[in-house]
Amino acid sequence: MKTTIAQVYKYVEQEVRIGVWVANKRSSGKIAFLQLRDGTGFIQGVITKAEVPEEVFQTAKSITQESSLYVTGVVHKDERSPFGYELHVKEIEVIHHSIDYPITPKEHGTEFLMDHRHLWLRSKRQHAVMKIRNEIIRATYEFFNQNGFVKVDPPILTGSAPEGTTELFATKYFDEDAYLSQSGQLYMEAAAMALGKVFSFGPTFRAEKSKTRRHLIEFWMIEPEMAFCEFDENLMVQENYVSFIVQSVLKNCHLELITLGRDTSKLEQITAPFPRITYDDAITLLHEKGFDDIQWGDDFGAPHETAIAESFEKPVFITHYPTSLKPFYMQPDPNRAEVVLCADLIAPEGYGEIIGGSQRVHDTELLKKRLEEHQLNLDAYKWYLELRQYGSVPHSGFGLGLERTVAWISGVEHVRETIPFPRLLNRLYP
Question: I need a labelling partner for 26 at 20 to 30 A (CA). Which of 7, 212, 231, 286 fits?
Answer without folding.
Answer: 7
